[in-house]
Amino acid sequence: MNILLINPSQENVYGKIGTITQPHIGLAYIGAVLEKEGHCVSLIDMDYDGISYERLGKIISQQSFDIVGITATTPVITSAIRVARTIKMANPSVKVIIGGIHATIMPQMLAKEPAIDFVVRGEGEATIRELVKSIENRTDAENIAGLSYRKDGKIIETPERALIDNLDEIPLPARHLFSKKQYRYPDTLYSPAFAIHTSRGCPGRCTYCQAKNIYGYRVRFRSAESVAEEVEILIKDFKAREIHVWDDNFAANKERIFKIRDEIKRRGISIAFSFTAGIRVDTACDERVLRAMREMGGYSIAFGIESGNQGILDSIGKGITLDQARQAVSLAKKLGFEVWAFFMLGFPDENEQTMAETIAFAKELNPDVAKFHILKPYPGSKIFEEMKQEGLIDDLNYENYGIHTFPVHHTRRASRATIYEYQKRAYRSFYIRPMIVLKQMLRLRSTNRIFNNLRTALGVLRLIGRGKNKRSPSEFPSMMKR
């Protein structure tokens, strides 16, 4: 079958900064599965390829696609629905499938949308393979696990699909489907850089996290051989010079880290690794683990710390201590890593004192880079339900749920304006210090990093405060009001 995969536009959420990114790995995995089944697969990244909705409609009407698959996070779901409607208007016979995190947490809402034929819940690789076969053979989809769809005016939800046990069985991402133009990821030392996932799942109980809805609490790991093979392919076929590991739990399985290091050495692979996702500090307090990550070529590591107040950490189920954060950051510095630290402001119990403590803790840890995001209570997370019940959420326009935009909520003891002010204060307080200014200048040791950081900084400055004026509900697609 002739299948088109689409990454919808994120410009309404992130502006032009949204195009400085990596190819969508989830779509690349889906593409690989479909190609392995013998289907003809094409892919459009609307922002990166510069495809407008009008142009998309023309492509659909001029080419004979049987199926279009769309992925969407919560902030871009409005765009995804517009894509689906554009497709159906151009060619009503095309089957439209939507997947991703928002499809998983709100399947019934999306299944009601006339422009969407099937909603894929959870991990999509096995489901999409069976669904495409069903569409091709014109058989009923009722026996395919992990689906929501309309039939005879009713919403059908098939049973949940079991998680994929052996991740090595999934074909490696079909990155060749993406544009030949080079994607740029902020702050890389070397270009081109590519992201990889080496595990799925997280045992953490963080109340703000959506990921468990797709990948579950049980961590499943790819083998060292599979990881090394993907890195080799990226170097050989895509001229990769830097690899970004997007695993929250890369350091959770110590023995596997040693095996990956040894396998990379055995194959003679030499490339820079950056562990960018925000590794849990409780898994990174072992010097042997961090040393092995350095020995495989790691130069940069990020930690998800979130708060400088232990009570806040406990209230959000983070499952770490401030001392663990101190130990992990200290060890990483000792071993020569460039250290990033991620923090969030605006948790339900947050007040001015706890936010000030987070800023102070960031300065105490003194990482090379600190990021201060404002909490976004995404639907599907425990914190969303808690805050919704208490009336703390002020804005349900998901286009305002981008990570750099104005708060969509207030806390029990702090207003939206106060949260926003503390974010600005955090950046000023952390970065406008003589030694930090010097450290940041010394970090810019490659032209690639200088260019990407400048471009990203300008994009973030344009976004700061976006969403301050809540959009009218009339700007939503109709399904958003159901």
What is the top-level CATH class of the largest domain? Alpha Beta
CATH homologous superfamily heading of the largest domain? tm_1862 like domain
User: How far apart, in Å, are the first and last alpha carbons?
Assistant: 34 Å
Shape: globular
Describe this structure in words.
- There is one protein chain.
- The protein has helices at residues 11-14, 25-36, 46-49, 53-62, 77-90, 101-105, 107-111, 125-137, 212-215, 224-238, 254-266, 287-295, 310-315, 322-334, 352-365, 382-390, 416-431, 434-443, 447-463; strands spanning 2-7, 40-45, 67-71, 95-99, 118-120, 147-151, 154-157, 193-196, 199-200, 220-221, 242-245, 272-279, 298-306, 338-345, 369-374.
- With 482 residues, the protein is α/β, with parallel strands linked by helices.
- The protein folds into 2 domains: 2-157, Response regulator (Rossmann fold); 184-463, pyruvate-formate lyase- activating enzyme.
- The chain has a 7-stranded mixed beta sheet with strand order 2-1-3-4-5-6-7, with helices on both faces. A 6-stranded parallel beta sheet has the order 8-11-12-13-14-15. The chain has a two-stranded antiparallel sheet with strand order 9-10.
- α10 packs across α11 (254-266).
- The two termini are 34 Å apart.
